[in-house]
Amino acid sequence: MASSSAASQDRTQLQYAFDQLAPYSASASAVNKAPYDVFVNHRGCDVKHQLASTIFHTLDLMGLRVFLDKEALEPGDVIPAELQHAITSSSLHIAIFSPNYAQSPWCLAELSFMLKTGIKIIPIFYHVKPSDLRSIDQGIGIYADAFSEHENKGKYILEKLEEWRIALNNISFHSGYMVCDSEDEGRVLKNIVKFVLGTVKLVPLEVAKHPVGLVELVQDFEGTTLQSDHTHQNAKIVGIVGMGGSGKTTLSKELFNRYSSSFERRSFIFDLRAEKNALHNKQKKLMQDLGVSNGLSFDCVEEGKNILANRLTSVRVLIVLDDVDHIDQLDALLPANINDLSSDSLVIVTSRELGVLTSWGISCNFRMPEMNWSHAEQLFCWHAFLQPFPAQSFESTVEKFLKACNGLPLSLKVLGAHLYGKKSRDYWESLLDKISRILPADIRQTLQVSYDALDKEEKEMFLDVACFFIGDKKSAAIAVWDGSGWSGLHGWETLFNKCLVESYKDEDQEEHIWMHDHLRDMGREIACMQSPYRLQDAAQILEIQKKSQEKILIRGIANSIDNFVPFKNHMLQPSILAWIKNSVTGCSRRRSKRHPSSLGLKILRVGSTKFRKEFAPLSEDLLWLCWYGFDRQRILPSWMSFRNLHVLELQDAYNLEELWADNVEPPLQLRNLTITDCHKLQSFPSSIGRLKHLKMISAHFAPAFHSLPDEFCGLQSLEHLQLRSYRCLSSLPAGFGDITNLRHVDLSRSLLKTLPVSFKQLINLEYLNLSYCKKLKLRLDTLENIKKLEYLNLDICWELEVLPREIINQTYLRNLSVMDTKLSYFPTNISRLTMLETLRIGSPLLTSLPTSIGNLSSLTTLGIEDCHQLECLPHTMELLNLLKEVHIKRCGIRELALGGDGSPHPDGNLMEIGTLPASICILKLMQCQILKEIKCIGGVINLQELEIWGCPTLDGLPSFASFASMETFSIRHCPKVQKIEGLEQCRSLKHFIADCPKVAKIEGLEKCRSLEELRVKTCWKVPGIQSLENLERLETLELSCESISALKPCIQSLKECPRLMSIGGRVVRFVMPILKSLALPKLSVMRFEKFEDWENIIPNSLEPAFLWYEEGNESENEESEGVLQFQSEFHGKRVSIIVSRK
Question: Residues in domain TIR (predicted)?
Answer without folding.
Answer: 34-196
